[in-house]
Each structure stands twice: as structure tokens, then as C-alpha cells.
Amino acid sequence: MTQMNEKSDVYSFGVVLLEVITGKPAISRSRTESVLLSDQIGSMLANGDIKCSVDQRLGDRFEVGSAWKITEIALASASESSEQRPTMSQAVMELKQSVFGRMTDRSNHKDPVRRVTMNLDTEMVPRAR
């Protein structure tokens, strides 16, 4: 029996993040096999294909660099090996850098999109069960 710990929560977080990014379920089932979303996305990224990984309903309305980084964080979090997974604090910190770093870059280029600041603290990170 597998014991639940922080790394288990990180795995679950990575799977949910992949579902959000792709708009697809965590497991695709056919009559002959079940395929994990993390395996599908890992293959697409290995081929350099981020656009097919992102939820098709977004069209081209997403930042490619942010999509790459967020997907990489999700895949690392959903790694089969718990030793290769980041801590939840590391994953949140990297996500914040990816999202808010891009927002800062845009505001420095006088983008008409208004910058919204959120006081996200790693203390808000869920604790392991």
C-alpha cells in the first residue's frame, strides 16, 4: 500500500494542472488501452509541439513561453518518480515566476493589459495529508 505524503499531493497537483492546461482528462481510455495524459503531453513536448498540448478552445490566445513553462512544471510534478518531483513550494514558486514574470514583461512594454497584483504566499500552499 502506498503511503500518502507531500510528494503524493504534488503528483495530484501536476495531474490537475495538466488537465487545466489541456482541457483533457487525466486518463484516455479506449477498448484496448489506457493512456496517461502526462505520457501524451510528454511525447508532444519531446517533438516540440506545445500548441497541440494546450486546450484547443484557447486558439492562439495564450503565451507560448508561459505554456511551455507551466506544462514543464506540471510534468515534473506528475513524474512517476517521487524523487524527481519538486516540492509544492518549488512548484508554486516556479508558477508564480512564469505567470507574474510574463505580466511584468508585458507591463514594461506598455501593453494595454492592466497588471493585476496578487499577494500569493507559499504559506497558502496545501499541506501534505
Automatic annotation (TrEMBL):
The keyword Transferase applies. GO terms for molecular function: kinase activity. The keyword Transferase applies. Keywords: Kinase, Transferase. This is Protein kinase-like domain superfamily. It comes from Arabidopsis suecica.
